[in-house]
């Protein structure tokens, strides 16, 4: 039942006014260019996007995956709870924790986090099964799950390191004296080799991407803020997971998992990872907490419905901050009335407060920009269209044009050098005119070599993150400009190709 509720909630609660979020366009478009890796992320999520395109490629089929993996995560969490000795109430409480808090938001977005959370949870479940049964199939399953986690999101490495150290500090260190352990590890390495080779062949874009994040986003992270976020993300069930952490340390068999939690947090802080990178470790704590609270209420069963009501009561007020359940204007008015900006929820990457959270504002304006850009493109004479390309400032715009665009010619001529779209740039671009979409008129490089520039239109939705992005029309590039374009494309591609 909880899994069904988890699956349906995003579809029921989110207002249909909102579009896909910026990154969702990127991951979906990656799926239209099958590969063993991409510049921003490993390819498993993108392969799911490819399946979505086979099913029709609508927003529903894209949003299916976050809901589905959310439901799967509940199922595995309940199975883990049972392995810890939990019965019905323990499993219900643990599963309820996956429905609330940050999980409600994360399982509404087609992003690698959904795979990260699931494979962390599945890996821990299979490790617990192996320790309890000593059956080799669970050891292989554990390593296989970690390998799939690598294909989902590279942050699985934090779990691998934490469990490795946790096991070494425990009575289970004897696992590393068994031959089958190293066979399993070898097979796990073999499974990730194709993606590692892709990374090598493209000059390690993972490192480049992390450096870019450090410069643009992670520079604002700090240990105190990171730790505060750990409490806030699951505040409706904070009493469950903290109880679970204490319970793990009281169980000699599972104490290493408690240490693994602290190791994950420590490694993420040292690595300046985003605070939500840790969300994969909490299903384990919710499972343990469910068991502890179930045992504690054996003689006080009246407390069980009270704890359930408490978790639900603490969830409801946060729903408007976790999902865009109302139209943007109503949501912005709600935030203003309740002084939500004081919580930091309305602070964007620019460190400024805005009317809507960044993710919600990033679900608006894409259709408007696409419609206006394509309308202008279609207004051009056929001879002019044949010599015109649409150059987008970022992958969100390019992805939205590919997703919402109506005409094949419009979509085929849409390019950008941003993100993984760079890998799909034609080696040779032949054109005379450029329709450029961006916040500011670009004056550098080849943009100085056009005969005429005109501002056509802009995004007017003030609550959209795309508000103010303009459509420029550059006409008649000269020969020098074309040479600069060719050189620029060559340089960009060389950066990620051996």
In short:
The protein has helices spanning 2-13, 22-30, 44-54, 59-83, 88-99, 101-106, 113-133, 136-152, 156-168, 179-201, 205-216, 223-233, 238-250, 255-270, 282-296, 303-315, 319-322, 328-337, 358-361, 366-379, 382-385, 395-404, 408-412, 479-494, and strands at residues 388-392, 414-415, 433-438, 450-458, 470-477. By secondary structure, the protein is α/β, with parallel strands linked by helices. The chain has a five-stranded mixed β-sheet with strand order 2-1-3-5-4.
Intertermini distance: 51 Å
Give the count of helical stretches.
24
Assembly form of the protein: single chain
Shape: globular
Note the main attributes of this structure:
498 residues; alpha/beta; five-stranded mixed beta sheet; globular
What does this structure look like?
The protein has 498 residues and is α/β, with parallel strands linked by helices. The chain is 59% helix and 6% strand. The chain contains 24 helices and 5 strands. The chain has a 5-stranded mixed β-sheet. It starts with a helix and ends with a helix.
């Amino acid at each position: 039942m909880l899994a069904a509720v988890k699956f349906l909630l995003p579809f029921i609660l989110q207002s249909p006014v909102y579009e896909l979020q910026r990154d969702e366009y990127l991951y979906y478009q990656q799926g239209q260019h099958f590969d063993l890796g991409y510049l921003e992320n490993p390819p498993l999520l993108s392969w799911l996007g490819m399946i979505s395109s086979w099913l029709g490629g609508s927003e529903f089929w894209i949003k299916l995956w976050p809901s589905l993996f959310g439901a799967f995560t509940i199922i595995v969490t309940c199975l883990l709870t049972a392995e810890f000795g939990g019965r019905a109430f323990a499993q219900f409480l643990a599963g309820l924790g996956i429905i609330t808090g940050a999980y409600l938001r994360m399982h509404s977005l087609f992003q690698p986090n959904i795979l990260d959370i699931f494979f962390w949870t599945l890996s821990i479940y299979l490790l617990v099964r192996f320790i309890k049964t000593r059956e080799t199939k669970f050891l292989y399953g554990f390593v296989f799950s970690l390998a799939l986690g690598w294909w989902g999101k590279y942050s699985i490495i934090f779990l691998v390191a934490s469990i490795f150290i946790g096991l070494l500090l425990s009575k289970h260190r004897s696992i590393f004296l068994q031959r089958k352990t190293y066979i399993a590890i070898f097979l796990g390495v073999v499974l990730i080799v194709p993606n590692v080779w892709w990374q090598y062949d493209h000059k390690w874009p993972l490192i480049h991407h992390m450096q870019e994040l450090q410069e643009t986003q992670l520079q604002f992270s700090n240990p105190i803020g990171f730790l505060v976020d750990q409490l806030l993300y699951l505040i409706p069930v904070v009493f469950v997971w903290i109880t679970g952490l204490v319970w793990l340390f009281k169980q000699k068999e599972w104490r290493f998992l408690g240490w693994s939690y602290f190791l994950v947090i420590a490694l993420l802080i040292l690595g300046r990872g985003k605070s939500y990178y840790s969300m994969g470790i909490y299903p384990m704590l919710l499972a343990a907490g469910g068991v502890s609270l179930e045992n504690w209420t054996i003689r006080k069963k009246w407390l069980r419905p009270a704890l359930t009501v408490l978790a639900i009561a603490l969830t409801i007020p946060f729903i408007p901050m976790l999902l865009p359940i109302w139209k943007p204007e109503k949501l912005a008015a709600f935030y203003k009335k309740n002084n939500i900006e004081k919580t930091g929820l309305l602070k964007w990457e620019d460190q400024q407060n805005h009317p809507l959270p960044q993710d919600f504002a990033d679900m608006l304006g894409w259709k408007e920009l696409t419609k206006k850009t394509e309308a202008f493109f279609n207004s051009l004479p056929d001879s002019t269209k044949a010599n015109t390309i649409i150059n987008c400032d970022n992958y969100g715009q390019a992805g939205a044009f590919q997703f919402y665009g109506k005409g094949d010619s419009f979509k085929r001529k849409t390019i950008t050098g941003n993100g993984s779209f760079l890998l799909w740039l034609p080696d040779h671009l032949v054109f005379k005119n450029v329709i450029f979409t961006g916040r500011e008129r670009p004056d550098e490089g080849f943009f100085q070599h056009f005969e005429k520039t005109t501002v056509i239109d802009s995004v007017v939705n003030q609550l959209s993150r795309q508000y103010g992005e303009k459509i420029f029309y550059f006409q008649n590039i000269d020969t020098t400009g074309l040479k600069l374009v060719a050189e620029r494309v060559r340089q960009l591609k060389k950066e990620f190709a051996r």
